[in-house]
Automatic annotation (TrEMBL):
Comp. bias intervals (Basic and acidic residues): 335-344
Name of this protein: DNA methylase
Database matches in InterPro entries: Antiphage_assoc, DUF1156, SAM-dependent_MTases_sf
Keyword set includes Methyltransferase: yes
GO-annotated molecular function: methyltransferase activity
GO terms, biological process: methylation
Amino acid sequence: MTQTQQPPTKPPLADAPALIEHAFPVAKLSAESYKERKAGSGQRLTGIGKWWGRKPLVLVRASILGALLPATDDPQKDNEVFERLMGVDEFGLYERRTRQALSMAEFAAMTPEEQLKGAILAEAYEGPTDEDSWKLINGHLGTNARTLQEVVEQLGIMRFGEKPKVGDVFSGGGSIPFEAARLGCDTYASDLNPVAALLTWSNQALLCATPEDKERIDAAQKWVYEEVDRQITEWGIEHDEQGRRADAYLWCSEVLDPETGYMVPLAATWIVSKKHRVVAELVPDTSRKRYDIRIVTGASDAQLENAKRGTVVDQHLIPPPTDENPHPHPTRISNLRDRHDGGRGLRQWSGSDVLPRSDDFYQERLYCVRWVTTEESVVKGKVKTSRLRNYEGVSEADIKRENKVLKILQEKFLDWQSKGFIPSTELTGISSKNGNPNQTRGWSQWHQLFTPRQLLTNGLFSAVVQQSQAPRELLVLTSKIVETNAKMCGWNNHPTADKPTNVFTGQSISPMYNFSVRGLKLLSPTRLPVSELHSSAVDVELKDARLVTVPRDLWITDPPYADAVDYDEISQLFLSWYDKRIPQHFSGWYSDAKRVLALKGKGTIFNEAMIEVYSNLTRLMPDSGVQVVMFTHQDAAVWADLGMTMWASGLRVSAAWTVATETTDGINGGANFVQGTVLLVLRKRGAVETLFDDDVLSLMEREVSQQLKDMQLLEGAGLRWSDADLQLATYAAALRVITSHDIDGIDPRHELLKVRAKGEKSPVHRLIEQASQVASRELMPRGLDPSLWRDLGAHERFYLKGLETEQRGEHRSGVYQELSKGFAANNWRDLLGDERANHVRLQTATEMGNRSVHNGPLAGTLLRHVLMATQITAREGDPAKGVAWLQGEVQNFGMQQTRAVKLLEHLGKQALPHWAEDAAAARLLRGALMNAGV
């Protein structure tokens, strides 16, 4: 080094811990994430296109700010500043209020739930606007900012020596890069999947457009719809002779019933509209061996009741009765479809087929058309326009229009396929789990998932978009049209609205027996949002995450870890519609889904690929860099695998948080699904020491204990933790110890890639379970005697801790499941009094009755006998009988009497309404037991 050269100055926060490594207001962020999820179509990115499992924008914003803000020796002020920047404190909620006339005093008198309900989404909050807030923020951080973008840039310079560079190599629907760019970060995004990359690019192009681009895109989109409307009207394929226009066409499949010889239309229900009392009635035509389908409007109660039962029940064909066969037998449709006796089985369609052939097993039949007329009336001097919708059966004129559609499509078919306006690729690689139309319908090409009318309408949109002034920006419009207009779109006869459904009501592309086709009037609302949000640019690449070469200070990723969504498979539906156009508009991009390279969330190959990905990201990160990995799984084995992946990739865990992000409580009252997203915060490992097993366990116990104490101290700063938060935090504490050291005898890469026998656990999995058990000793219910807690069994601990969880208003299944793992209470479900989603609770003493005294999860325990004695006291109104039970059933009761009194004291404090009678009985029994002789 010459005399004039100076060593580079290390940024002041380069070695400082980040706020997200010490505190994170998960309760508030959970509420905000839930609010954003519940906004449905009001979520900002959903209007751009369909993707599965997008993370809430508010969670991404919190992760970035949490990784930049320092953790100082004043945690309360740290949290106050963070919440002020996020707009999740009372000041921010007031600025986010939708009722602008509300005074601060009126606002302060509202409950936190009311304040949040009346606020705009947190992701739409642009930051504080008042002088006092910025004085608080800048004073604590040493910044000089007046906007979120300015504070982010200044913190980036203080931590990394530059404006923060953020990257995501699993961009998916684009939440992470979109929000990073809005915060002013230098943002990089990549994905292996072309559909994901296009969505990520489109988010910025459409929602963060310049004023000039917005004007151009808006005008182009308006022109597209006008041009499509003009062409469809000119073709005369949606209007009838009276000038009415159809907006919906209802179709059904038909199959030959070998027993009756009739062609039977298939539908799970023949109710068309509950609101307008419209049904379809099947009338047998003996001469043609078919059923005429008669549409009845203003149906009677009897007709509605009869129409509820369709011709398909549990995948069985149930033909309507006829005079020749008044009691037809049900037949499993798959047995008919797969028959090999020379009958009418499934045929593989050829590449040119757009309709079934006359001898195909499945036929397709139009049976109802909804016509719309517009009427104007004058109400109180104002002209009011109303739409009248009429459901009608299919006429000869309707059939002629369908034939005309087919003729026009055939004229354009090859030309449109060559230009990529309609699909031209083979239908391959779809698993049975995702519907596999090839196996169930014989369709061999992607275009066969659409009727001729759908191909013509959707293809017309594609062709017109290409001619517009914004062909790149409007490319994703094709996928929005396609998702609403395919054979996988059902018909919703909801009492308040009759309308088609979309393809992806679930996570599959399963064909339907009866489906709907949208006319242009129902496709017109399917428009792309365009806005001028402030944002930095995003560099989007279509690339394998293992091959990325762009350095970043902060990597935030949501990998397909233990994920049930087969993105590479089901996104092919969209890709088939613009596979030829993507390379035209994006230099260097490909149009292959790269399914062979796609990471699947399980198995040795996946684990090895994950190590390659995160080893690459570690190399592309400075020593002061941070990574945040998001995943939605709470199983200790998954944590162990993920921990070993990061360990083998040169990373160590510095913190982990769980934020509730999912709104799915279960399907039709079924089981609860995973509701939390785990944020794993990681740093480079650097130089580490080697520990032996005993050292690891000792250090892990101290770390877990300290973790819980730190989190409980932070409750004074306004943070609220659930027991599940505390339990999962112990997993993170264990991983901090494990990944920050080398452990004698454990090679993480070897352990991760090892093929294990069923039930065999990795060494890291066992360590995490031990940490969880350490935590279970620490998580003693408040007010319980420590000496009593120490001697309780697994299910006794689970039950008493579960009661405290109920007291805190927690009724999610996942929370109780986590407690059961921590306490090793494997039969915890047997103790539940209610298993409904978001209503989970434990049985009371009375609800247990005399069941499971000798053979349940609490069998033979002192707690079970105390609960039984409480139930007897409540039932008989006589505590003496409860005392008699204890004296007669509990072995060595003299030595157990004091412990029984302590348990009754605790049960007597239960303040839940459904515990009122039993709690009173417990208090009565406690008094009697204290006065009883042994």
